[in-house]
Amino acid sequence: MPHRPEHRPRRAARAIAATAALIVTAGAAAACGARAGEETDAFEPCLDTSGDTVKVGALNSQSGTMAISETTVLDAILLAADQINAAGGVLGKQIEVIDEDGASEPVVFAEKAEKLIREDCVAAVFGGWTSASRKAMLPVFEDYDSLLYYPVQYEGLEASENIFYTGATTNQQIIPALDYLAETGVESLYLVGSDYVFPRTANAIINAYAEAHGIEILGEDYVPLGSTEFSTIVNQVSAAGADAVFNTLNGDSNVAFFREYANVGLTAEQMPVMSVSIAEEEVGGIGVENIVGQLAAWNYYQTVESEANAAFVEAFKAEYGADRVTSDPMEAAYNAVHLWAATVEKAASFAVDDVQEAAGGVSFEGPEGTVVIDGENNHVSKTARIGEIRSDGLLYTVWESEGPIEPDPFLDGYEWAADLAVAE
Amino acid sequence: MDILVGQLFTGLSTGSILLLAALGLSLTFGQMGVVNMAHGEFIMAGCYTAYVTQQVVGGAGVSLLIALPIGFAVGGAMGLILEVLLIRRLYHRPLDTLLVTFGVGLILQQVARDVFGAPAVNVTVPQFLRGGVEILGTTVPKTRLFIMALAVVAVAALALVLRFTPAGRRIRAVVGNRDLAETAGISSRAVDAGTFFIGSGLAGVAGVALTLIGSTSPTTGQSYLVDAFLVVVAGGLGRIKGAVVAAVALGALQSVFETYSTASLAKVGVFVVIVVFLQLRPQGLFTLRTRSLA
Known about the structure:
The complex is a heterodimer of chains A (424) and B (294).
Chain A: H1 7-38, E1 53-60, H2 67-86, E2 94-101, H3 106-118, E3 125-127, H4 131-143, E4 148-150, E5 163-165, H5 174-183, E6 188-194, H6 197-213, E7 216-223, H7 231-240, E8 244-248, H8 253-263, E9 273-275, H9 280-286, H10 288-291, E10 295-298, H11 307-320, H12 328-347, H13 352-359, E11 363-366, E12 369-372, E13 385-389, E14 395-400, H14 418-423
Parallel strand pairs in A: 1-2, 1-3, 3-4, 4-5, 6-7, 6-8, 8-9, 9-10
Antiparallel strand pairs in A: 10-13, 11-12, 13-14
Helix pairs in contact in A: 2-12, 3-4, 5-6, 12-13
Chain B: H1 2-31, H2 39-57, H3 60-85, H4 94-116, E1 132-135, E2 138-141, H5 142-164, H6 166-176, H7 178-183, H8 188-210, H9 220-235, H10 240-260, H11 263-280
Helix pairs in contact in B: 1-5, 1-8, 1-9, 1-10, 2-3, 2-4, 2-8, 2-9, 3-8, 5-6, 6-8, 9-10, 10-11
């Protein structure tokens, strides 16, 4: 997408739209500020819980590039709400999910978030996928002092009081993946990633880790998002002869990369590739024969063996069809709804302040294992898992952390990462 | 030394992919002057043709060979429909053509998304194209050798058609001077439609071949479109020879730059070279001397 010259006018239009939105928002904020002097508060939450129901928002892309990924998250949110309703609801009230389409555009996410808060008066919103969409929604939720539950693994270095992060931060995904590689005797790495914020941040962390743990980084390559030309990179990876490759490519590039990798004769035995954005769905597009034996790092796979997961997968397939698969972000979204409900029950209130106050320590027995909200940074503790791709196209756990890992979005607990948080 | 030779060979292979993606465009954009933003989606249609053929036929090798002519027909038919329904009405309105074909491209992407789903689908590479061959110290995947061979065949076939067939002569006549060709009894409308058919068909063929190395998803075409335009512009409008030289040169540049930096920076480098080159030589590598008065 970034190289299409015809996008320039569109991008300019988008920039104009964004600027316009900013001006409007600023105006609204100023208006709120003006009102704040006269009234008690800038924005009076309009949540109405006098009836039998409580409204929550589900904000996912139902159209555009991200639709297929994000609609699966919406399915998981609806499933969780149904389950809670069947068990009697939250504080005796049935959850009513109002779904909005983020349309794969950060600006739309921000607009719809505002609509859900102001017009629908929801108690909380579940959704967002790309970091761009989260960054766009963050000021909206902070300005209106509302709640967003964000269910996707991301690059860390963020902790808003108004966002609960139920996906992994870097110390629950990337660092365990490095620990695993180091444990299996990997002494040198080659880094390949798409050129945007997540891979750049991830590789900064990997470089710091490598320096502290005596792992040699033999190369670090970035390709433009969507690039499908990998012959030179694979030649270089092959020539460098690293013990393993750490892959932070996103989307279609993975297909071209793994095909080229397999075609020059590189295998998982010779040089395993550890990926952080390949889930059950992507394996199909790459072709199992090109990626069998390679590794991925997540917190959840459909194949995780636990009672909670068996029940989750069964309920999901019963609701949406036997051919559907469950993935990490879906599971995190499912957990998010349950965590919100549990927090509300604990607070005995739907009010944002009460929920924020009660959140610390709230836990849920999720499909991946127990998840607990950290009251300090609003992330959740999660079990890290390394999965291997087998010939049936599913991922199977080959290693998992001893219990859930405490979230550490700014990597404060890692000495070698001291410079990273500052650099950001 | 070995690495450089290996990289030059890689460049040749990258260039042949660029060429395959750009060849159809060099006909519709280069010869007819139509800025067809949906060209990438015709490539994408070729990719999905390969996928569907494989689902129906089964055997990966056989289905690939069958899919090549079907891809030509599918791409060509889509191009023909686009030409007859829209582009024909917009000649001499290049900006409108650009916007309309861009819109058509978006529609085609959404259609693909609705029919096949947004995640990439897998086209299995036939057994005889798996693995690589050792050439000059680098392992070259067989899929790339196949694409190079296909690019050579496609260029040769196109050149032969343009030079030796009556239809090809009519195309060249209309490109040379539309009014004079019409005076000579050539229906320029029929020629335009035919040219668009061939150009779009070549995009379909490119799509079928590109499934061997890249992904097959609704946005696949986009990743090739800009490179294809670059090749045609740098090569000089209206010259197949220019497209061939430009594709190989850009491929080699990209892979040599990439050896010394990252792929992202290499892309920047290639763009800088093209910008400088077009400043010095706005008409591209080769120019077509036409007899038109415009």
